[in-house]
């Protein structure tokens, strides 16, 4: 069926979203920086290397356990810059607010943005506010852009993963996606779940100080770890092997996923990263990560291989094997 | 979750796998009837640990996949009605009807809400007294009781704006239909766990007595499925077919009689069209006349449109296990999860989607 309208799936971060980028956007904006398709652009301006990234936040609900749209918008862009191996410095903030939005809520959101920026060590230096008539936007949308500098000797890109690299995951997966979904749908569970939204730049800084030769960094947001690993396998034309048993999923999160028929590998994270590190440096990077509160549960979940380039294969708990494909569109709750 | 973790136990799984490899001698074809089994088999890489003698084939147990195209078209027509709010489980959103899907209708501005339970749908009806809320009732014996209960609740609450369009189906008549379909070659059935919680092992007794084919009710964790495969292999190797319960922690002989009582109070069996298979006598559930006020099929004029079945789509043969998705000419060429032709590629529990995603 021809898709002549934009569907929600086009924004899911999976295959359908990728086809929109590849078929429509890349040809029109064609340039070598964009076509690298990293989390942010890396630019060389008179010998200074910069990372530049932008992201829009439309999360519903705007308040959720563990955070709100404000700190999410700051942390998300900070992380996109950090994943380029850069030190995030300055952010912009664009607000699109629906007429009638409570002033107190706006204050809470802006305060969270301010606190998150402080914590990440970035400054919000420019911004814009638009108010649209009631119904023309859902409560509040925030766009943040950011820039940061890439230190000398740091070359991090999804395309640089190499066979033999160990894949380190900074902690449990699917916390954010499950929390937002549960909150949005009013699902209540005995065990509380909380978004993992956090700025990862300080953690990245420590990791790069311990090992400047990290090949690739990515925060597995929309589309989850499964989609991110596929992106890296594609970009670097290598194969990826992961071990299911090694991937930490909190019990409550696993339970909710099971109930809804979701695969935690495809659920969004907002405070986790994947690092691709040569095996001789892996233990060092891992131990630095484990010393940081945002990486205390970090672990090696797999490695890059020469076989099956472009594909991600997982060893299952029972010793079987399966392909981990990229997400197609939003995961939809199943019937039974 | 500790409970289900025990059933993912690596060591135990590997012991069962070893045992299957020792026991299985004859080449056998086992059908997992249920879509949740299909997904679990793929997600856990179960095929990759089985001996070559055992072939697993997927059956017609994904409720979305077997929903007839005419029903999908009716859902879309109901959404276009203008005065209705469609409440549906998420799986149905992407299923292509004749030229549209609920997801595409939503992009056109139709009032379609994804719900997680009938309670949500009832709540929508309560909150929007001026809107007709139509819940799309798709599923097997597993979901039918809760949907029946929602109709009873709606009556008790005095709701006049809650309706159900039912396309429910029952598993045992489908098993029987499979046995009578030409070209279907099955040595044993892995029976669905969730459905069995409701109908009990006894629900399959008439089927088993008629055909004497090895049957095992299975849960959804890898050790559950492996245990059931082992059980079927043993039955076949010893020529001793039985109707075994390999999921006793959830399934009893008699099932859940209360749930069935509620289901029977509201629904009655009827003939039903299964996508790709055709009409199976007595395999559907329609709303009884006394609850007709809640029956969307009776209360709304649903324009009947010319149903256009996708050309070349082999969903029917795949749903009956006659062929695997790999043998369908459209698979991975014309039909992909991004642009699905048939329902088996759409549903998260569809056989083609599982083959595409995990193989």
Characteristics:
heterodimer; A: about 325 residues; alpha+beta; Phosphoribosyl-aminoimidazole Synthetase, Chain A, domain 2; seven-stranded mixed sheet; five-stranded mixed sheet; about 25% strand; globular; B: about 350 residues; alpha/beta; Rossmann fold; five-stranded parallel sheet; four-stranded parallel sheet; 16 helices
Q: Could you describe the 3D structure shown?
A:
- The complex is a heterodimer of chains A (336) and B (359).
- With 336 residues, chain A is of the alpha+beta class.
- Chain A folds into two domains: 111 residues, 60s Ribosomal Protein L30, Chain: A (2-Layer Sandwich); 166 residues, Phosphoribosyl-aminoimidazole Synthetase, Chain A, domain 2.
- In chain A, strand 13 and strand 14 form a beta hairpin.
- In chain A, helix 2 runs parallel beside helix 3 and helix 5 crosses helix 8.
- Chain B is of the alpha/beta class and 359 residues long.
- Chain B folds into two domains: 313 residues, HypD, alpha/beta domain 2 (Rossmann fold); 44 residues, no CATH class.
- In chain B, 39% of the residues lie in helices and 18% in strands.
- Chain B is globular, with a radius of gyration of 20 Å.
- The interface between A and B is large, with 40 and 57 residues.
How much strand of chain B?
15-25%
At CATH level 3, the topology of the largest domain in chain A is Phosphoribosyl-aminoimidazole Synthetase, Chain A, domain 2
The assigned structural class of chain A equals alpha+beta
Mean pLDDT of chain A: 93
Ends apart, CA distance between termini of chain B: 28 Å
Q: Any guess at the CATH architecture of the largest domain in chain A?
A: Alpha-Beta Complex
The geometry of chain A reads as: globular
Tally the helices of chain A. Answer: 8
Unreliable stretches covering 5 or more consecutive residues of chain B: none
Please identify, by name, the CATH architecture of the largest domain in chain B. 3-Layer(aba) Sandwich
Specify the CATH class of the largest domain in chain A.
Answer: Alpha Beta
Number of domains of chain A: 2
The count of β-strands of chain B is 12
Rg of chain A (CA only): 19 Å
Structural shape of chain B: globular
Mean residue pLDDT of chain B: 92
CATH superfamily placement of the largest domain in chain B: HypD, alpha/beta domain 2
Q: What letter string, H or E per element, gives the SSE order of chain B?
A: HHEHEHHEHEHEHEEHEHHEHEHEEHHH
- The first-level CATH class of the largest domain in chain B is given as Alpha Beta
Portion of residues within helices of chain B: 25-40%
């Amino acid at each position: 069926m021809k898709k002549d309208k934009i569907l929600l799936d086009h924004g899911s971060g999976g295959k359908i979203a990728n086809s929109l980028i590849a078929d429509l956007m890349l040809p029109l904006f064609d340039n070598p920086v964009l076509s690298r398709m990293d989390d942010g652009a890396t630019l060389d301006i008179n010998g200074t290397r910069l990372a530049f990234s932008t992201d829009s936040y439309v999360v519903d609900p705007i308040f959720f356990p563990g955070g709100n749209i404000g700190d999410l918008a700051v942390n998300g862009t900070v992380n996109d810059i950090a994943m380029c191996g850069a030190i995030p410095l300055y952010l912009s903030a664009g607000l699109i607010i629906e007429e009638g939005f409570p002033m107190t809520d706006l204050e809470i959101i802006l305060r969270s943005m301010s606190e998150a920026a402080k914590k990440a060590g970035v400054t919000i230096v420019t911004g814009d506010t638009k108010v649209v008539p009631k119904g023309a936007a859902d409560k509040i949308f925030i766009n943040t852009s950011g820039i940061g500098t890439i230190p000398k000797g740091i070359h991090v890109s999804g395309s640089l993963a190499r066979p033999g690299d160990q894949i380190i995951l900074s902690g449990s997966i699917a916390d954010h996606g499950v929390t937002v979904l549960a909150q949005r749908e009013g699902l209540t569970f005995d065990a509380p779940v909380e978004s993992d939204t956090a700025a990862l730049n300080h953690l990245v800084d420590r990791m790069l100080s311990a090992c400047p030769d990290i090949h690739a960094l990515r925060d597995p947001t929309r589309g989850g770890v499964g989609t991110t690993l596929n992106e890296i396998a594609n970009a670097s034309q290598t194969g990826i092997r992961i071990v299911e048993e090694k991937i930490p999923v909190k019990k409550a999160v696993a339970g909710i996923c099971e109930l809804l028929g979701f695969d935690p590998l495809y659920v969004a994270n907002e405070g986790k990263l994947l690092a691709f590190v040569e095996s001789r440096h892996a233990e060092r990077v891992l131990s630095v990560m484990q010393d940081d509160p945002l990486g205390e549960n970090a672990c090696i979940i797999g490695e890059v291989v020469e076989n099956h380039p472009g594909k991600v294969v997982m060893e299952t708990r029972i010793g079987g094997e399966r392909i981990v494909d990229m997400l197609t569109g939003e995961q939809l709750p199943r019937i039974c | 979750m500790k409970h289900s973790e025990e059933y993912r136990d690596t060591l135990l799984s590997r012991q069962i796998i070893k045992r299957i490899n020792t026991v299985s001698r004859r080449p056998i074809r086992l059908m997992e009837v249920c879509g949740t089994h299909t997904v679990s088999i793929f997600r856990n890489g179960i095929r990759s640990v089985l001996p070559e003698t055992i072939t697993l084939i997927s059956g017609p147990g994904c409720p979305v996949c077997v929903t007839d195209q005419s029903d999908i078209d009716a859902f879309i027509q109901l959404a276009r009605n203008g005065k209705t709010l469609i409440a549906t489980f998420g799986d149905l959103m992407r299923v292509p009807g004749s030229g549209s899907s609920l997801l595409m209708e939503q992009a056109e501005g139709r009032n379609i809400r994804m719900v997680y339970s009938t309670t949500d749908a009832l709540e929508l009806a309560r909150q929007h007294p001026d809107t007709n809320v139509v819940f799309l009732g798709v599923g097997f014996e597993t979901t039918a009781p809760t949907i029946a209960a929602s109709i009873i609740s709606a009556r008790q609450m005095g709701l006049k704006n809650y309706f159900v369009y039912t396309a429910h189906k029952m598993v045992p008549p489908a098993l029987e239909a499979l046995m009578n379909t030409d070209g279907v070659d099955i040595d044993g059935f892995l029976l669905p766990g969730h459905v069995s919680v409701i109908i009990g092992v006894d629900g399959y007794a008439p089927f088993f007595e008629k055909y004497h084919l090895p049957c095992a009710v299975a849960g959804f964790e890898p050790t559950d499925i492996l245990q059931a495969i082992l059980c079927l292999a043993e039955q076949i190797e010893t020529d001793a077919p039985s109707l075994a319960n390999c999921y006793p922690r959830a399934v009893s002989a008699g099932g859940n009689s209360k749930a069935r009582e509620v289901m029977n109070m509201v629904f009655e069996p009827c003939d039903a069209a299964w996508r790709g298979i055709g009409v199976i006598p007595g395999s559907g559930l329609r709303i009884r006349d006394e609850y007709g006020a809640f029956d969307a099929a009776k209360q709304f004029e649903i324009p009947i449109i010319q149903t256009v079945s996708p050309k070349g789509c082999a969903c029917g043969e795949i749903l009956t296990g006659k062929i695997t998705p790999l043998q369908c000419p459209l698979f991975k060429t014309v039909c992909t999860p991004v642009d699905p032709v048939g329902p088996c590629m759409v549903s998260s529990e569809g056989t083609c989607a599982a083959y595409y995603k995990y193989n």
